[in-house]
Amino acid sequence: MTISGSIEETRKQVKEWKAQGLRVGLVPTMGYLHEGHQSLINRARKENDKVVVSIFVNPMQFGPNEDLESYPRDLDRDAKICEQEGADWIFHPEVEEMYGPDFSGYVDMNTLPEKLCGASRPVHFRGVQTVVSKLFHIIPADRAYFGQKDAQQLAIIRRMVLDLNFDIEIIGCPIIREEDGLAKSSRNIYLTDEERKQAVILNQSLEEAMKAIDAGEKDAAKIKNMIVKKINTAPLAKIDYVEVVSFNNIQPIEKIEGEVLIALAVYFGSARLLDNRIIL
Ligand code: PAF
Hints:
This protein is of the alpha/beta class. Helix content is 37%, strand content 20%. It contains 10 helices and 9 strands. It has helices at residues 7-19, 35-47, 75-84, 95-98, 117-120, 124-138, 151-163, 193-198, 201-214, 220-231; strands at residues 2-4, 24-29, 50-55, 89-91, 143-147, 169-173, 237-246, 260-268, 271-279. The structure holds pantoate.
Protein backbone atom coordinates (compact mmCIF):
# COMPACT_ATOMS: atom_id res chain seq x y z
CA MET A 1 0.00 0.00 0.00
CA THR A 2 1.31 3.43 -0.97
CA ILE A 3 0.67 6.68 0.90
CA SER A 4 0.95 9.73 -1.33
CA GLY A 5 0.30 13.41 -0.76
CA SER A 6 0.81 14.25 -4.41
CA ILE A 7 -2.05 14.95 -6.80
CA GLU A 8 0.17 14.27 -9.81
CA GLU A 9 1.52 10.94 -8.55
CA THR A 10 -1.92 9.73 -7.46
CA ARG A 11 -3.60 10.69 -10.73
CA LYS A 12 -0.80 9.05 -12.75
CA GLN A 13 -1.14 5.77 -10.81
CA VAL A 14 -4.94 5.66 -11.12
CA LYS A 15 -4.73 6.41 -14.85
CA GLU A 16 -2.22 3.56 -15.24
CA TRP A 17 -4.58 1.17 -13.49
CA LYS A 18 -7.44 2.31 -15.71
CA ALA A 19 -5.27 1.89 -18.83
CA GLN A 20 -4.69 -1.73 -17.75
CA GLY A 21 -8.45 -2.23 -17.66
CA LEU A 22 -8.61 -2.38 -13.84
CA ARG A 23 -11.66 -1.09 -11.96
CA VAL A 24 -10.91 1.47 -9.28
CA GLY A 25 -12.98 2.19 -6.16
CA LEU A 26 -12.59 5.42 -4.18
CA VAL A 27 -13.45 5.86 -0.51
CA PRO A 28 -13.33 9.59 0.37
CA THR A 29 -12.76 10.19 4.12
CA MET A 30 -11.52 12.77 6.57
CA GLY A 31 -9.59 10.08 8.43
CA TYR A 32 -9.79 8.89 12.04
CA LEU A 33 -11.30 5.79 10.52
CA HIS A 34 -13.86 3.63 12.34
CA GLU A 35 -15.87 0.53 11.46
CA GLY A 36 -18.16 2.62 9.26
CA HIS A 37 -15.23 3.55 7.02
CA GLN A 38 -13.90 -0.01 7.20
CA SER A 39 -17.18 -1.28 5.80
CA LEU A 40 -16.86 1.17 2.88
CA ILE A 41 -13.27 0.06 2.15
CA ASN A 42 -14.32 -3.55 2.46
CA ARG A 43 -17.15 -3.13 -0.02
CA ALA A 44 -14.89 -1.21 -2.42
CA ARG A 45 -12.36 -4.06 -2.13
CA LYS A 46 -15.02 -6.61 -3.13
CA GLU A 47 -16.33 -4.61 -6.09
CA ASN A 48 -13.09 -3.27 -7.62
CA ASP A 49 -9.56 -4.35 -8.56
CA LYS A 50 -7.89 -1.38 -6.85
CA VAL A 51 -9.00 0.70 -3.87
CA VAL A 52 -7.95 4.27 -3.13
CA VAL A 53 -8.80 5.84 0.25
CA SER A 54 -8.51 9.62 0.46
CA ILE A 55 -7.77 11.06 3.89
CA PHE A 56 -8.12 14.82 3.99
CA VAL A 57 -9.64 17.02 6.67
CA ASN A 58 -11.14 19.53 4.27
CA PRO A 59 -11.03 23.06 5.76
CA MET A 60 -13.53 24.32 3.20
CA GLN A 61 -16.40 22.33 4.71
CA PHE A 62 -15.93 23.70 8.26
CA GLY A 63 -17.57 26.95 9.37
CA PRO A 64 -15.61 29.58 11.35
CA ASN A 65 -16.65 28.28 14.80
CA GLU A 66 -16.56 24.57 14.00
CA ASP A 67 -14.13 21.82 15.02
CA LEU A 68 -11.54 22.04 12.19
CA GLU A 69 -8.59 22.42 14.57
CA SER A 70 -9.71 19.75 17.03
CA TYR A 71 -11.01 17.28 14.44
CA PRO A 72 -9.26 13.99 15.33
CA ARG A 73 -6.31 12.99 13.13
CA ASP A 74 -4.13 9.86 13.29
CA LEU A 75 -2.53 8.87 9.99
CA ASP A 76 -0.50 5.94 11.39
CA ARG A 77 -3.60 4.32 12.84
CA ASP A 78 -5.61 5.05 9.66
CA ALA A 79 -2.87 3.56 7.47
CA LYS A 80 -2.93 0.32 9.50
CA ILE A 81 -6.71 0.09 9.10
CA CYS A 82 -6.49 0.75 5.34
CA GLU A 83 -3.78 -1.87 4.93
CA GLN A 84 -5.75 -4.40 6.96
CA GLU A 85 -8.86 -3.78 4.81
CA GLY A 86 -6.83 -4.27 1.62
CA ALA A 87 -6.61 -0.70 0.28
CA ASP A 88 -3.94 -0.16 -2.39
CA TRP A 89 -3.37 3.58 -2.09
CA ILE A 90 -3.95 6.36 0.43
CA PHE A 91 -4.20 9.87 -0.97
CA HIS A 92 -3.30 12.17 1.94
CA PRO A 93 -2.61 15.68 0.61
CA GLU A 94 -1.61 18.74 2.58
CA VAL A 95 -4.10 21.63 2.50
CA GLU A 96 -1.68 23.59 0.25
CA GLU A 97 -1.70 20.73 -2.30
CA MET A 98 -5.50 20.89 -2.55
CA TYR A 99 -5.99 24.63 -2.24
CA GLY A 100 -3.18 26.72 -3.75
CA PRO A 101 -2.70 30.37 -2.73
CA ASP A 102 -4.89 31.71 -5.55
CA PHE A 103 -7.62 29.09 -5.23
CA SER A 104 -10.94 30.75 -5.98
CA GLY A 105 -13.37 28.20 -7.48
CA TYR A 106 -16.08 26.19 -5.80
CA VAL A 107 -18.97 23.87 -6.63
CA ASP A 108 -22.37 24.73 -5.19
CA MET A 109 -26.00 23.84 -5.75
CA ASN A 110 -29.29 25.58 -5.20
CA THR A 111 -31.78 23.77 -3.04
CA LEU A 112 -30.54 20.43 -1.66
CA PRO A 113 -28.00 21.97 0.73
CA GLU A 114 -30.38 24.58 2.21
CA LYS A 115 -32.25 22.41 4.71
CA LEU A 116 -31.19 20.00 7.50
CA CYS A 117 -27.43 20.29 8.12
CA GLY A 118 -27.16 23.12 5.58
CA ALA A 119 -29.39 25.35 7.74
CA SER A 120 -27.00 25.34 10.70
CA ARG A 121 -23.81 24.80 8.63
CA PRO A 122 -24.25 27.25 5.72
CA VAL A 123 -20.85 26.70 4.03
CA HIS A 124 -20.58 22.99 4.74
CA PHE A 125 -22.02 21.43 1.59
CA ARG A 126 -20.31 23.90 -0.72
CA GLY A 127 -17.03 22.68 0.80
CA VAL A 128 -18.06 19.03 0.48
CA GLN A 129 -19.11 19.40 -3.17
CA THR A 130 -15.93 21.27 -4.03
CA VAL A 131 -13.58 18.77 -2.43
CA VAL A 132 -15.48 15.73 -3.73
CA SER A 133 -15.43 17.21 -7.27
CA LYS A 134 -11.68 17.73 -6.93
CA LEU A 135 -11.22 14.16 -5.68
CA PHE A 136 -13.25 12.80 -8.60
CA HIS A 137 -10.96 14.71 -11.00
CA ILE A 138 -7.75 13.66 -9.24
CA ILE A 139 -8.84 10.02 -8.85
CA PRO A 140 -10.87 9.02 -11.92
CA ALA A 141 -12.40 6.01 -10.17
CA ASP A 142 -15.24 3.83 -11.45
CA ARG A 143 -17.12 3.92 -8.15
CA ALA A 144 -17.10 6.05 -5.01
CA TYR A 145 -18.40 4.85 -1.64
CA PHE A 146 -20.23 7.03 0.92
CA GLY A 147 -21.96 6.18 4.20
CA GLN A 148 -25.70 6.68 4.58
CA LYS A 149 -25.18 8.26 7.99
CA ASP A 150 -24.49 11.48 6.08
CA ALA A 151 -27.69 11.03 4.09
CA GLN A 152 -27.98 14.63 2.91
CA GLN A 153 -24.35 14.54 1.76
CA LEU A 154 -25.10 11.34 -0.17
CA ALA A 155 -28.19 12.90 -1.81
CA ILE A 156 -26.22 16.03 -2.74
CA ILE A 157 -23.31 14.08 -4.22
CA ARG A 158 -25.71 11.88 -6.22
CA ARG A 159 -27.40 15.01 -7.58
CA MET A 160 -24.07 16.69 -8.33
CA VAL A 161 -22.82 13.64 -10.26
CA LEU A 162 -26.03 13.63 -12.34
CA ASP A 163 -26.15 17.39 -12.90
CA LEU A 164 -22.46 17.79 -13.74
CA ASN A 165 -22.08 14.48 -15.65
CA PHE A 166 -19.30 12.98 -13.57
CA ASP A 167 -18.41 9.55 -14.96
CA ILE A 168 -18.55 7.72 -11.63
CA GLU A 169 -21.04 5.47 -9.84
CA ILE A 170 -22.01 6.57 -6.33
CA ILE A 171 -22.58 3.73 -3.87
CA GLY A 172 -24.39 4.47 -0.59
CA CYS A 173 -23.54 2.03 2.22
CA PRO A 174 -25.54 1.24 5.38
CA ILE A 175 -24.89 2.92 8.73
CA ILE A 176 -22.62 0.89 11.02
CA ARG A 177 -23.69 1.02 14.66
CA GLU A 178 -22.28 0.33 18.12
CA GLU A 179 -23.87 -2.64 19.92
CA ASP A 180 -26.35 -0.35 21.68
CA GLY A 181 -27.40 1.24 18.36
CA LEU A 182 -25.41 4.52 18.38
CA ALA A 183 -24.25 5.28 14.82
CA LYS A 184 -20.43 5.08 14.54
CA SER A 185 -18.84 8.48 14.01
CA SER A 186 -15.38 10.00 14.35
CA ARG A 187 -17.03 12.66 16.53
CA ASN A 188 -18.27 10.10 19.12
CA ILE A 189 -14.90 10.53 20.88
CA TYR A 190 -16.04 14.00 21.99
CA LEU A 191 -18.78 12.42 24.19
CA THR A 192 -18.42 12.19 27.97
CA ASP A 193 -19.51 8.88 29.58
CA GLU A 194 -22.91 10.31 30.51
CA GLU A 195 -23.47 11.87 27.07
CA ARG A 196 -22.46 8.57 25.45
CA LYS A 197 -25.06 6.72 27.57
CA GLN A 198 -27.83 9.14 26.67
CA ALA A 199 -26.93 9.32 22.95
CA VAL A 200 -28.58 5.91 22.35
CA ILE A 201 -31.86 7.84 22.41
CA LEU A 202 -31.24 8.88 18.78
CA ASN A 203 -31.44 5.39 17.33
CA GLN A 204 -34.22 4.45 19.76
CA SER A 205 -36.35 7.41 18.64
CA LEU A 206 -35.90 6.42 14.98
CA GLU A 207 -36.72 2.78 15.82
CA GLU A 208 -39.99 3.87 17.42
CA ALA A 209 -40.82 6.08 14.43
CA MET A 210 -40.21 3.19 12.02
CA LYS A 211 -42.48 0.94 14.10
CA ALA A 212 -45.24 3.55 13.87
CA ILE A 213 -44.73 3.85 10.10
CA ASP A 214 -44.78 0.06 9.72
CA ALA A 215 -48.06 0.05 11.67
CA GLY A 216 -49.56 2.46 9.10
CA GLU A 217 -48.76 6.00 10.33
CA LYS A 218 -48.39 8.25 7.26
CA ASP A 219 -48.46 11.70 8.83
CA ALA A 220 -44.92 13.18 8.62
CA ALA A 221 -45.61 15.82 11.31
CA LYS A 222 -46.75 13.16 13.79
CA ILE A 223 -43.61 11.11 13.12
CA LYS A 224 -41.43 14.17 13.61
CA ASN A 225 -43.18 15.08 16.90
CA MET A 226 -42.86 11.53 18.16
CA ILE A 227 -39.07 11.63 17.59
CA VAL A 228 -38.66 15.10 19.14
CA LYS A 229 -40.61 14.04 22.25
CA LYS A 230 -38.52 10.92 22.72
CA ILE A 231 -35.18 12.72 22.27
CA ASN A 232 -36.24 15.41 24.74
CA THR A 233 -36.46 12.75 27.46
CA ALA A 234 -32.62 12.70 27.42
CA PRO A 235 -31.60 15.67 29.61
CA LEU A 236 -28.27 16.26 27.81
CA ALA A 237 -29.73 16.23 24.28
CA LYS A 238 -30.07 19.53 22.45
CA ILE A 239 -31.89 19.11 19.14
CA ASP A 240 -30.47 20.91 16.10
CA TYR A 241 -33.13 19.45 13.80
CA VAL A 242 -35.47 16.54 13.29
CA GLU A 243 -36.93 16.52 9.77
CA VAL A 244 -38.98 14.27 7.52
CA VAL A 245 -38.15 15.07 3.89
CA SER A 246 -38.17 13.59 0.41
CA PHE A 247 -34.82 11.78 -0.04
CA ASN A 248 -34.72 12.90 -3.64
CA ASN A 249 -34.80 16.68 -3.16
CA ILE A 250 -34.52 17.15 0.65
CA GLN A 251 -37.79 19.12 0.75
CA PRO A 252 -40.28 18.73 3.62
CA ILE A 253 -43.20 16.38 3.00
CA GLU A 254 -46.61 15.96 4.62
CA LYS A 255 -47.17 12.29 3.90
CA ILE A 256 -44.79 9.35 4.26
CA GLU A 257 -44.73 8.08 0.69
CA GLY A 258 -42.08 7.50 -1.99
CA GLU A 259 -38.42 7.82 -1.02
CA VAL A 260 -38.34 9.39 2.43
CA LEU A 261 -35.48 10.54 4.64
CA ILE A 262 -36.08 10.90 8.37
CA ALA A 263 -33.01 12.75 9.57
CA LEU A 264 -31.83 14.25 12.82
CA ALA A 265 -28.88 16.16 14.23
CA VAL A 266 -28.59 16.47 17.99
CA TYR A 267 -25.92 17.99 20.21
CA PHE A 268 -24.62 16.15 23.24
CA GLY A 269 -22.18 18.64 24.74
CA SER A 270 -19.82 19.67 21.93
CA ALA A 271 -20.60 16.61 19.80
CA ARG A 272 -23.16 17.11 17.03
CA LEU A 273 -24.45 13.64 16.19
CA LEU A 274 -26.37 12.59 13.08
CA ASP A 275 -28.65 9.64 12.53
CA ASN A 276 -31.42 8.78 10.07
CA ARG A 277 -33.62 6.26 8.37
CA ILE A 278 -34.06 6.17 4.61
CA ILE A 279 -37.28 4.60 3.36
CA LEU A 280 -36.87 3.55 -0.29
O1 PAF B 1 -18.01 12.40 4.79
C1 PAF B 1 -16.85 12.87 4.89
O2 PAF B 1 -16.01 12.34 5.61
C2 PAF B 1 -16.50 14.13 4.12
O3 PAF B 1 -17.57 15.02 4.08
C3 PAF B 1 -15.98 13.85 2.70
C4 PAF B 1 -17.03 13.20 1.83
C5 PAF B 1 -14.75 12.94 2.79
C6 PAF B 1 -15.55 15.16 2.04
O4 PAF B 1 -14.57 15.81 2.77
